[in-house]
What does this fold into?
Amino acid sequence: MGTGGRRQFLRAASSLAAGAALPAVEERPNILYILTDQQHWNMMSCMGNPWVKTPAMDSLAAEGVRFELAYASNPVCMPARTSMMSGRYPSHFAMRDNGPAQVPESALPQMLGHVFRRAGYRTAFGGKTHWPRPMTAESIGFETITRDERDELARRAADFLREKHTQPFLLVASFINPHDICYLAIDAYTKANQLPAMHPKSVVERQRVAEALERPAGVAEAEFWGRYCPPLPANHGPTRQEPAALGKYGSFRGYVRKHWKEQDWRMHRWAYGRLTERVDAEIGKVLAALRETGLDRKTVVVFASDHGDMDAAHGFEHKSLPYEESARVPFVVSWKGRTAARVDRRHLVSSCVDLMPTLCDYAGITPPAGLPGRSVRPLVERGRAAGWREEVAIECGDSRTIRSRRYKYSVFAGGEPREMLIDLERDPGEMRNLAGEARFAGVLADHRRRLRARVEELGDEFGRELVG
It folds into this structure.
């Protein structure tokens, strides 16, 4: 062999050796991302919640790692969903809520679908999108299998899994429920005030709510309230020294907080549970197809929700608040035969910005540069990761929050008090605001500093206004 040939051989051998550390294309796992809408962290029976039965979700937790401290980047649909697909906090796009927003065209090639498609994955999306312009499934790199958000989505996702696949795939199944619960308060408000119906075309949504309100057949009134219908949560009342911004909600949100009685709230909780069970059944159809085809041993399944629902806590329903019921969500990573059943109660996870780094890690893909999130794969496989974050940020329309290991600090726009400091270790129901108590001045100052640093790191303009 001549000198040139020998150099060529050594370069080839070196390349093979370097590539041996990475999975071959045919060995890269498939990714199935299952997403629900408006499901808070405790709405699974595997959480010990006796008021809901979720066997499909529980089956994923039984074969994977369930993160109990997972938080949405912003607990509202459009910001959270944009965050998942981009790997960025919503403030990166000056996005605070579901109002008008725009993502620059230049950001689209770095969205999740394109990142995976360039790496040789088939990328498919079904169900709810709710993104700002110009984001569509196609513009961010996915083929659309269906725009239906319910049973048809379950069928189409199952059909997709039963296809013969010649390349690894990333499939997103984005279900709407238990989001339909929103219409209970909306319609109570418009009816009481003799106003035109909001969202009058939402016929299916209202039909599902009506079905969810149905009581078990043959069950007497007293038995229903005593045995079947969830009680009010222990933290139904307002937080002591509640920030003034929370008391200024109007429209349907303010109406139900002021006028709903105990039975109204309990029926809301009852219907919320039934809608959660309905989406669990749809998820079950997808998981059945995954197991039937034998793809479960070749597929990483991630399950999460975009945000939670207040579920009667502090007299609220809906989302958008930094309280646990609104901002904290289920987050499960499961790979049959590779992950062991475990609950992580220690690490703070961002269900939105950690998603892309995590999926890329499993697929052997380098994620876009500069993303604020981290892969949770080391936490899944080893239960630890060097230098894991000590706090997680939560952005809301009129507030900013930093959640540390023990405390949660929020600052709101307008009114006094503007700040809220909660000791989650001693007060998990968030019933006592410690921000005005002198003995917590040091903790308050520390968390002001933490939030200010995080706002600066993210370049969050609205956050800068709040933290001064």
Summary: Residues 1-26 have pLDDT under 50 and may be disordered. The radius of gyration is 23 Å. The chain has 15 helices and 14 strands. Residues 368 and 458 are 16 Å apart (CA to CA).
